[in-house]
Write a structure and sequence with these properties.
Elements (H helix, E strand, L loop, with lengths): L4 H19 L21 H13 L6 H14 L3 E5 L2 H11 L15 E5 L4 H9 L3 E5 L10 H7 L4 E7 L8 H11 L2 E5 L7 E2 L2 E2 L6 E5 L12 E5 L2 H11 L47 H32 L6 E2 L7 E2 L4 E6 L7 H10 L5 E2 L17 E2 L4 H9 E5 L6 H17 L3
Parallel strand pairs: 2-3, 2-4, 3-14, 4-5, 5-8
Antiparallel strand pairs: 1-9, 6-7, 6-11, 8-9, 10-12, 12-15, 13-15
Helix pairs in contact: 1-2, 2-9, 3-9, 4-5, 4-8, 9-12
């Protein structure tokens, strides 16, 4: 008698654990040989098992795992709606573009409106503003928190300013009370880019739950991963409709893939100038995209999400270890700083080489690279100095002096759960030997 598919599936999934144990042995750290990574995937057999489980369904597009992930993710953060997309950049694109939805009526953003932003950051926080024909207004950031200078934000707001779109830089919450107050006073939308900040809190509440919408990335460098992936959350019913529609080709219909007639009026509605009863499945209320993820990505995410609280506490512990190690070099580096109301689940440990340190950032990062210690710059430095952005239509509120300093003098080290105490201690030792070699 042939075996049932359920039995075969169970056998395959058991084999996955055996495979994981054989394939992904933890190797010993050999200083100078084993790379000290700044980020990376942290997983066990459960993620692979879930991925294989989903592949055996062969549903491929959004299905049971997507539904589970979206529900769990919203419930973890305390948000009403959550939408899985194929990257953090896509999350930024749909969240921002939703502000231009006709569903928002007279509140909607229009081309030519201004949006407060920063140049010291990741390009795809800025890109949706430009791609939608709006004008970014650049504000300088503080060295240490790497977040926007609130006084400059207040001064920069003009009659055309309609929104604020900011990241919590490297997981460090910006001054949310002050920014929310500015938004309330001037009736601005606030979008929080939490791509680097999943699990960070402000006044004991998760970041991403203060603005009108928030975005997350699940690329391997981030707090949880699906390889590629992202999410948008919101509590606003209109924004949620716009976000879903923009993600799903622009369609008006909100049936899940494979379902029909969830709204109960599939053949009875009247939309635009279409004939009465035109199939709702093919009615488009936004000029949209297809930015959906697959169920296999979601299957990995479901398991990663269970590990998120532990991942965040390891990130906090690693940050503390870096801080203790760096204390003795404080005359050479500006160390990171968080607001007292916040508890960041740090994406990384950023430092800025002091002006009179006697060496350059690049000299040090080259030295660390030679000793197998990975570092990264704070993303694009000053995005306005990047080739893609020369000549864009924008307003610079004040000087971008600190942004330029970050471009020249700032770098970050890893806090991800894959980095160990021994690796941090080795890195600190190497920084010390670099300073000694310079007789500093
Ligand atoms: C602040 C910020 N926003 C957006 C993104 C884009 O995310 P993704 O790589 O998933 O497109 C990143 C990527 O690292 C990021 O750091």
């Amino acid at each position: 008698m042939s075996r049932s598919h359920q039995d075969i599936r169970a056998d395959i999934l058991n084999l996955v654990k055996e495979y994981y144990d054989a394939r992904f042995q933890k190797s010993e750290f050999i200083p100078g040989i084993t790379p000290v990574r700044y980020a990376g995937r942290v997983f066990d057999f459960r993620e692979i098992s879930s991925l294989v489980d989903s592949s055996l369904d062969f549903w491929l597009t959004a299905g049971r795992f997507t539904k589970e992930f979206e529900l769990e993710f919203a419930s973890f953060l305390g948000a009403k709606y959550s939408f899985l997309v194929n990257s953090g950049s896509s999350a930024n694109l749909v969240a921002f573009t939703a502000l231009m939805s006709p569903l928002l009526k007279e509140k909607k953003l229009n081309p030519g409106d201004e949006v407060i932003s920063v140049a010291a950051g990741f390009p795809t926080t800025l890109n949706p503003i430009i791609q939608n024909g709006l004008i970014p207004v650049f504000i300088d950031v503080e060295i240490g928190t790497y977040n926007v200078i609130v006084e400059q934000v207040k001064k920069a707001i003009g009659p055309k300013t309609k929104a604020i779109f900011l990241a919590h830089t490297l997981g460090n919450p910006f001054n949310i009370d002050a920014i929310v107050e500015v938004c309330r006073k001037h009736e601005l939308f606030l979008i929080e880019d939490c791509c680097d900040a999943l699990g960070s809190t402000y006044k004991n509440k998760f970041v991403g739950t203060f603005g009108h919408a928030a975005t997350f990335s699940f690329y391997p460098a981030h707090h949880i991963t699906m390889g590629e992936g992202g999410a948008v959350i919101t509590n606003d019913a209109f924004l949620s409709r716009a976000i879903r529609s923009l993600r799903d080709w622009g369609r008006d219909c909100y049936c899940n893939g494979g379902d029909n007639n969830t709204c109960g009026k599939r053949f009875t509605g009247k939309y635009g100038n279409l004939p009465a009863g035109y199939d709702h499945k093919y009615v488009y209320s936004h000029i949209g995209y297809n930015l959906k993820a697959t169920d296999m990505q979601a299957a990995i995410g479901v398991e990663q999400l269970k590990k998120l609280p532990e991942f965040c506490s390891i990130r906090r512990k690693n940050y503390k270890n870096w801080m203790e190690g760096f204390k003795k070099f404080e005359d050479k580096f500006i160390l990171p700083r968080a607001l007292s109301e916040s508890d960041p689940a740090w994406f990384a440990f950023p430092v800025t080489v002091r002006e009179d340190a006697g060496f350059t950032r690049t000299e040090l990062t080259n030295y660390l690279d030679y000793h197998k210690i990975e570092t990264r710059n704070l993303f694009g430095g000053n995005l306005l100095k990047q080739p893609a952005y020369s000549g864009i239509n924008c307003r610079i509120a004040d000087t971008l002096d600190n942004t330029d300093r970050i471009m020249n003098d700032t770098f970050f080290l890893g806090t991800f759960p894959g980095i160990t105490e021994a690796q941090i201690a080795y890195s600190i030792e190497k920084i010390e030997s670099f300073l000694n070699s310079k007789k500093l």
